């Protein structure tokens, strides 16, 4: 597989001389490589559409271009079916511990708010939409059809998703990143960057905030700081409950994403353990929401 990937990269007509190719660690929907060419470095992402996960590479390219135009993300250098070439940013990905640092959290939240405020104005082409409750229903159908070992949980998941959708409204709409893992934030020592726009699309801002908190295991106090920083105001009980509903929905979607990946992905990753961890966190968040 590595040889095939390197052949694809070598064959691109954009290089100015002999290139060096090195695989990059991470990435569970793409295979990523660092390419050095005549003193410049680039990131090459190899990955086709993944309909089971609602990933469209056309939408990813459009979102990546819009995010660069908004000043959030590196430039798109080249793309063709299955291949995306980005300018390389000499920066380190954040960890969950790093995101939770108070000073860094304030910077991260400002970047997320900029995404919601600025990217849509630069986005071109057919609308990209990410609606978590549709995703959950579609995942449930895929798990049922695929004979997943998790089939007994599906009726409960669908019932909970319906309750969460009712509790989370009314909905504001913004352009969301929808995959706010710590590693998707890069710190170059001067500023933060936001990368990997596979799941980007119009959504409620509360989904990104819920995902940011759940992916990085915020405490209740850190969640309050995040919300007050984002909205620049104290948070009332209604908004807090709507946020908590979207946080639960984010965890449910991540859990089901991993369940679907267990039976559909060919990437070498321990999806079973990832499922178990996210299921534990989802069940905890759901119980907390029910008791609030």
Automatic annotation (TrEMBL):
Kindly provide the name given to this protein in its UniProt entry.
Thiamine kinase
The record ties this protein, via Pfam families, to: APH
Q: Which UniProt keywords apply?
A: Kinase, Transferase
Can you cite a GO biological process for this protein? phosphatidylethanolamine biosynthetic process
Keyword Hydrolase among UniProt keywords? no
From the record, give the transmembrane residue ranges.
none
Organism of derivation: Rhizobium lusitanum
GO MF annotations, alphabetized: ethanolamine kinase activity
Signal peptide residues on this chain, from the entry's feature table: none
């Amino acid at each position: 597989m590595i040889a095939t990937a390197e052949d694809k990269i070598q064959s691109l007509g954009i290089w100015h001389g002999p290139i060096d190719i090195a695989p990059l660690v991470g990435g569970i929907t793409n295979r990523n490589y660092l390419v050095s060419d005549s003193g410049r470095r680039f990131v090459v992402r190899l990955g086709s559409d993944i309909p089971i996960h609602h990933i469209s590479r056309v939408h990813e390219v459009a979102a990546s271009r819009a995010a660069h135009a908004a000043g959030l993300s590196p430039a798109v250098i080249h793309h063709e079916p299955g291949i995306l070439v980005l300018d390389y940013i000499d920066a380190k990905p954040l960890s969950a511990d790093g995101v939770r640092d108070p000073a860094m959290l304030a910077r991260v939240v400002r970047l997320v708010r900029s995404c919601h405020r600025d990217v849509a104005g630069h986005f071109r082409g057919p609308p990209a939409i990410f609606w978590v409750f549709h995703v959950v229903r579609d995942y449930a159908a895929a798990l049922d059809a695929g004979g997943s070992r998790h089939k007994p949980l599906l009726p409960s998941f669908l019932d909970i998703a319906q309750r969460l959708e009712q509790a989370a409204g009314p909905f504001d709409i913004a352009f969301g990143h929808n995959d706010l893992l710590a590693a998707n934030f890069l710190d170059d020592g001067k500023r933060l960057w936001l990368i990997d726009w596979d799941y980007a699309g119009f959504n409620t801002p509360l989904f990104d905030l819920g995902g940011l908190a759940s992916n990085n295991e915020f405490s209740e106090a850190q969640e309050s700081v995040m919300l007050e920083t984002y909205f620049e105001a104290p948070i009332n009980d209604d908004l807090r409950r709507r946020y908590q509903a979207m946080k639960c929905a984010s965890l449910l979607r991540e859990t089901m994403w991993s369940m679907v990946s267990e039976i559909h992905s060919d990437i070498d990753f321990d999806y079973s353990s990832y499922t178990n961890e996210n299921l534990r966190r989802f069940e905890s968040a759901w119980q907390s929401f029910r008791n609030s």
